[in-house]
Amino acid sequence: MSLASKVTLGLAIGVSSAIIGYVHYKQSDDRFKLHQGVLRDVEQQQRRKHENRYTLQQQIDITKQLKAAMEVDANEESKRNTANAVTPNA
Question: What is the DSSP letter of 87?
Answer without folding.
Answer: S
